[in-house]
Each structure stands twice: as C-alpha cells, then as structure tokens.
Specification:
Layout: H1 2-14, E1 22-29, E2 38-45, E3 48-55, E4 61-66, E5 73-77, E6 80-86, E7 98-106, H2 109-116, E8 120-125, E9 131-134, E10 136-137, H3 143-168
Helix pairs in contact: 1-3
C-alpha cells in the first residue's frame, strides 16, 4: 500500500500546474511620487483572466496597460467591487483602508502571450501617475523540487512512525514494559 501511495505521489508531483491550465500572477504597486503601495493577484485559467487588486484609499481608477509609462496603451479598465473604497481607521488601528478592484476578462491568444511575457502593468490613480506594478508570473517549483519534497515528507513520516512504535513499548519512565 505504501509503495502504491508513493508511486501516486510521484506521478502527481511530476505533472505540473501548467497542464491544468491555471497560471498565477502578482503585482506590487509602487511609485516614486508617494510611499503608498498596493498589491494585485491575478489568475489565468484557459483564456479567463481574473484580477483582485487593492490600491491606496481614494485611488479609485484602475487600468491594465501594455507598458509601465502613464501614457501606455490601456488594455482594460478595472472595476471597483463592493464596498468600493474603505476609509482608513484612526491610529492605533492597522486598517489602512483602500480601494478594491475585482473582476475578469476573456483574453485573446495575443493578449495571453503579452501577459505571460511580462508586458502588462496594473496602475491605480486619482489623477496623475498613481501607483503601478508589473504583472509577473508566479514561478512554479520544478518537478525535481517537488519530488524531493515528497521524498523528504515520506522520510519524516517514517521517522515519526518508528519513534512512536519504539516509544509505545516503553513505560512512562522510559524503561521497557514488562
């Protein structure tokens, strides 16, 4: 049974998430004009692109564009999700507030290629440059790394099982049971 489980885990590790058709992306939004920041999480499943972006409070315009310059061509306008923007709470609260964008688009093959090649940027703003960040593919571990992890977990489980088996044959003070 253990051999079958190990073989199954090996096969599961060797198949990558790319085969499942889902890619994950992130962006960290910054600016030279301000110390305010934002973050974005993105997924691409087939040709369905979803986004979840948090920007500084009051920066309620969001776009995805091809290039980092403020005048780069706009690919999509982002949609604010309910409750749109939340004001920060007074100190000592840790709630810094923000504007929340969430939605999805259907992409063409050319758009997918540009996205995967790192040519897309997300920008949020009120007026002016705002904060922006490159939408970057999250690297996935290689199958040898995952296989090594599986091997390590298997060894750890065996060690724990042997320790427990040896411990159960001893009394509370550590001496062998009669």
């Amino acid at each position: 049974m253990k051999t079958k489980l190990l073989a199954f885990l090996t096969l599961a590790v060797m198949s990558s998430a790319y085969a499942q058709g889902t890619l994950q992306f992130t962006a960290h939004l910054t600016s030279t004009e301000t110390d305010l920041t934002g973050n974005g999480l993105f997924t691409l499943t087939g040709n369905n692109f979803t986004y979840d972006v948090i920007s500084p409070y009051g920066w309620n315009h969001g776009i995805i564009q091809r290039g980092s310059e403020p005048d780069a061509s706009v690919i999509f306008n982002l949609t604010l999700r309910f409750p749109y923007c939340q004001a920060p709470e007074p100190l000592p609260s840790t709630n810094r507030g923000g504007c929340f964008f969430r939605g999805n688009f259907t992409l063409s093959e050319g758009q997918i290629s540009d996205l995967v090649d790192g040519q897309w940027y997300v920008r949020t703003f009120v007026e002016g440059p705002g904060v922006n960040g490159q939408i970057s593919l999250v690297p996935e571990p290689s199958w040898p790394q995952l296989l090594g992890l599986t091997f390590g977990v298997t060894l750890l489980c065996r060690t724990v099982a042997r320790h427990r088996a040896g411990f159960s044959h001893r009394s509370i003070d550590g001496r062998p049971k009669a």
